[in-house]
Hints:
Layout: H1 2-8, H2 11-22, H3 25-30, H4 37-53, H5 60-76, H6 80-99, H7 103-142, H8 157-172, H9 174-190, H10 195-200, H11 202-220, H12 233-248, H13 254-261, H14 263-274, E1 282-284, E2 287-290, H15 308-318
Antiparallel strand pairs: 1-2
Amino acid sequence: LYRLGERLSSPTAGLLAVAIAMTMPLLYGVSRNFLVEYWLAALVSGAVYHLLRSDGLRRMDSVRRLGALLGLGLLLKSLFPLYLLAPAADILLRRRRELGASFWRELERPLKTLCLIAGAIALSWYAHNLVTTVGYALRAGFGDIAAHYGSTRVFSAEVLLGYWLKLINGAFSPYYCAAALAVGTALALRERGRLGALLRDPAWRAVALWLLLPLAVATIGVNKDVRFLAASLPAAALLLAAGLDRLTRPWPLRIVALWAFFIFPANYYVFQSFGPSLLPPLSLGPFLLLPPSSQYAGQPFTGARWRQQWLVDEINKEAGGRPAT
């Protein structure tokens, strides 16, 4: 993540991206659960870095590393290619325009190497489970399993707004969403003549697409569990960090401003990690500015043991009073 921030803007942007990602409620929340999304976010970040470092699949050392990360990512979650699909397609289309008729001849070796390494790793499990996995993935994203985590009225305004509110409160945090809006607006006004250059930059495009395609798929999917977007949150952290870096470069007290920027998210992190907080719980309408818990993060239990009986009672209620296993 640091290297990606460095590539987008500067070493400062790399450090900011790491700090922002580490204080996003969904990322530090899933890191404390027995879920693969935190590892998944790390592997996707590494894969995007080597995709960009490969210089359009010209550098074979990065192609081989990308193949290994793709294979390992598929073993973690069958959704792994979704996070790379749009950035990879954009880079390959650019190479296609550059090479013309020689495109396949030039890319034959790197693509075969990439697929061979990824396939050798992934097929250690998928060779015996591919059909079952594909079927389960479709059911979990759009079918009967997904219905337990969302609504089939995927284009309903109520469902869409409810999902985005969950993302703002429990994934990105309202603070970072407001910061992104403010930084983006300020940069757009100050650097109107340079926005075209940013849009043409392969690194900026790749990071933006890494966020936007999974976000679009999750928005129209039946399953509305926010953790499926965890692997794209580093992209949001990178974009905010790079924008913040560019915006504050002329500021005389830049270091002080950047330290101050993290006071609130650091307090948010401490509040949901350890309990004590400098501020009381805060909310602004539907936006939970400083909640004691979010969907995947919350204060630790203070008692000597976990509330097993409470968990059993809650499961029993969900089952309508019937015996539940």
